[in-house]
Amino acid sequence: MEKLSESKLHMWRACMTVFHLDGKISAMEKQWAEDKINSLPISNEEKDILRNDFKTPSSLKTLIPKITHPPDKAFLLHMINVLGHLDGEFHESERQVFLTLQKEIMGGLKMSNIEDEVKKMEEESYAINNKASLLEHVFKKARHGF
């Protein structure tokens, strides 16, 4: 079995802890957690860690800083939303963790850099001889008689 990166392992550990935020575990949540643990391509040792986190939750304050890969943080944010709604009720404690993590993830983004990159991509899309331009491709085909 493939061993997870530390960041991804802590992301899944945090997911198992999220189930406890509303103070109750539904049968559906228990089944989802077990199915997910069994489906992950991880070692038995890592599965035991996740099962233990499901039974006895770890501290999110301890786990979240160990999730160092930004896509893992973003996926955790998505999973908090998914898991929070699994029992049909997005509890206030789940919502607060979601909002806190969302601020942490978004707070690290420099929107000006993202906006500059989007603008650059847009300007490049207008360039002549742009292979990605569908419109330019159609005009070239038309000019050469399809």
CATH class of the largest domain: Mainly Alpha
Order of helices and strands: HHHHHHHH
CATH-defined topology of the largest domain:
TerB-like
The biggest beta sheet is recorded as: none
Number of helices: 8
| Estimated share of beta-strand residues | under 5%
Instruction: Determine the fraction of residues in helical runs and give it as a percent range.
Output: 55-70%
- Please give the radius of gyration in angstroms: 22 Å
Query: Distance between the terminal alpha carbons, to the nearest Å?
Result: 52 Å
Domain module count = 2
In the CATH hierarchy, what is the architecture of the largest domain at level 2? Answer: Orthogonal Bundle
What shape does the CA trace take? elongated
The assigned structural class equals mainly alpha
Which parts are unreliable, with pLDDT below 50 for 5 consecutive residues or more?
A: none
Total strands: the figure is 0
Could you tell me the mean pLDDT?
83
Task: Walk me through what this model shows.
The chain is mainly alpha-helical and 146 residues long. The chain folds into 2 domains: 6-107, TerB-like, CATH 1.10.3680; 111-143, no CATH class. It has helices at residues 6-18, 27-39, 44-55, 60-63, 70-86, 92-107, 111-125, 134-143. α1 runs parallel beside α3 and α1 runs parallel beside α5. The radius of gyration is 22 Å and the shape is elongated. The termini are far apart. The model has no long low-confidence stretch (mean pLDDT 83).
